[in-house]
Recover the amino acids of this structure.
């Protein structure tokens, strides 16, 4: 359950793209596997650059990968 | 566990041993049969410092050998963010510690007390910084 006001479909997209591993995605994006895991679980908000890189790894628009939840309070 | 998190654990454990060792060394007196100092507290503290450095290096080499690719990779944004957050907490801790050390000097008037209080404050703040990093890594 995400504690941040941003949801993502990274896990689903990974499986749809040839069951890509977290390590595989991390190497494409240029972060660690643990960072990808933290992003997937909604525990860490990536920077704009990393968010775009993740979307580019799936050849998908940003909105398909990340969704902003207005109803959820911002993390302080 | 990532290399950076393992590194934080290693540094925390080594620093904790170092802190305990340094402050304990001031109470240790080793004498020969004639009552002469075999090793002064200062030399003992220096030996502990060298041991701290050696232990850190050895343990970091061991964890680097376990995951060489991870060790060679530069810190990513999340790891830099965790380090910055932990450093901020450590900064507050060192400020509080130094204020207490100054208070201790005003209370006792002994420069020796202040010196050890300052050193203790720095070491505790460093431990708090490393501990904060570990907590942030564990939280995800």
């Amino acid at each position: 359950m995400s504690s941040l006001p941003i949801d993502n479909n990274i896990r689903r997209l990974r499986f749809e793209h040839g069951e890509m591993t977290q390590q595989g995605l991390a190497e494409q994006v240029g972060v660690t596997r643990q960072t990808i895991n933290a992003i997937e679980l909604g525990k860490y908000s990536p920077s704009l650059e990393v968010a775009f890189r993740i979307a580019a790894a799936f050849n998908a628009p940003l909105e398909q990968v990340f969704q902003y939840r207005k109803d959820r309070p911002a993390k302080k | 566990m990532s290399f950076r998190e393992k590194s934080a654990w290693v540094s925390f454990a080594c620093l904790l041993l170092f802190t305990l060792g340094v402050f304990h060394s001031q109470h240790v007196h080793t004498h020969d049969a004639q009552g002469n100092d075999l090793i002064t507290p200062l030399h003992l503290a220096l030996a502990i410092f060298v041991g701290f450095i050696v232990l850190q290096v050895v343990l970091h080499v061991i964890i680097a050998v376990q995951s060489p690719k991870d060790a060679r990779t530069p810190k990513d944004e999340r790891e830099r963010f965790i380090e910055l957050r932990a450093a901020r907490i450590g900064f507050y801790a060192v400020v509080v510690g130094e204020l207490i050390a100054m208070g201790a000097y005003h209370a006792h008037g002994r420069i020796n007390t202040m010196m050890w209080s300052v050193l203790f404050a720095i070491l505790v703040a460093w431990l708090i910084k490393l501990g904060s990093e570990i907590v942030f890594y564990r939280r995800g």
